[in-house]
Amino acid sequence: MTIPIDSILSTPPLSSPGDTFQKFIKAGEFRLQFCNTCRKPFFYPRTLCPQCGGGDLEWCRVSGEGTVYSTTTVRQKPERGGDYNVSIIELAEGPRMMSAVRSVAPDQVAIGLQVTAMLIEEEGVHKVYFRPSGAIAGAAT
Amino acid sequence: MIGVGLGGLGNAPGYSHLDLLGLAVQAALGDAGISLKEVDGLFTANMSNILPTLAVGEYLGLQPKVAVGTNTGGNSFVDHLLWAALALQAGQCEVALICYGSNQRSGKTPPPDAPAYEALYRPREPISSYALAAARHMHQYGTTREQLASVAVAARAWAQLNPRAFARDPLSIADVLASRMICDPLSLLDCCLVTDGAGAVILTRADRARHGKQPPVFLLGCASAQTHRQISQMPDLTVTAAAQSGPRALAMAGVAAHEIDVLQLYDAFTINVILFLEDLGFCEKGEGGSLAASGALAPGGALPTNTNGGGLSCVHPGMYGIFLLIEAVEQLRGAAGPRQVPGAEIALAHGNGGLLSAQSTAIFGTAAAI
Fold first, then answer.
1. In this predicted complex, what is the ipTM?
2. Shortest distance, CA A77 to any CA of chain B (angstroms)
């Protein structure tokens, strides 16, 4: 991905890791960088593989499937929006990410729950949320 | 110096300062012909991160043994050379990386140190991260809210012996469980105080210390380790880097865990003490809740912990670490009055930073202990 101009200067591709991730989400694709050297994906997007330091990276689609690794309910007064879920999701491909499980009450989210990604735009930002894998996409939060 | 690298010179729109730093580091590793995994000393500073060595360490996938983030402005990296050289010379690390990145020209300015991929989901930090760790520990090991609460109850018992402590009213398990839930499973009384406070410690070499005004307390060992910046990047939510810093500090001191007479464990939240008891080797992984609930940590117990009342009941002005050191010194001087652990000769002080991100362990001893 990087094309060295000289031996000590790294020249980046035109689109940054963060921008590229967003562009894919906006297009409805959940993609992560896979490192071709250590053959593993990682999250969050970076300019080098945090597992081996390699720069030979490729954006590949992931399944969107994952498991709730941990979860908490952030308590908030009803007039400020009420309680909401924050979770760490372990993707089927390995990496973990923070997200929130929607389509179910916060206190119904348990460690071990199988979840599926939903790509949603909120306030101009494209985000990855999750729903219980059995739930119907688009059900009320 | 065996390798140098540059990245993102000029205009690099869309790239974060860490993205650019990553490019430069990659180029330097290539120039040196070494692998990222060999880097065990990290020296960095920037104007974007409050905890620069954690943000940079996480981005690069490093868990350095030595990390220095002194920021005195643009000269910092020249200054870092001295600490890198001293660390290398003392054998504290083998390969030191000094690095920097900035997107000052093209970049928008995010809030300082906001983990970009987590803020989207509005965690209430720091408590959300500790709550996630507590929830995972409860799931994997059956740790209960009552066991977490027993940590707070023990700290309060010590605070009641300390006229300097902020919170000294009687506290029961039931009181903790009944307090307002903030981020499940942590309630208000699972959390440290919010107070003002300041601390200072002065050191000299041992030969001068022996002739000082106070009985000297000797530093026998010290080590640090870090694993992440953001909680979602923590390799295992139930194991902290204390599992690395503790054994290294004890080995440097030539002391075993069972020889420690008094413990100061940074108790920003009740779950912290449980994790550190396990990771430092005072009990098996998963048994920290039982150990806390046994009464061992409280006055009269076999493992006196946070004898000033800790962050939970004595003082907590945002960064508690210096108070660990001061309490350890007072205990080993025999100057702790009603809260004195009789015959204390060896103390362990363990500090936690960030979101269970960075761990530092120190071992102290009296003259008799050396």
1. 0.94
2. 11
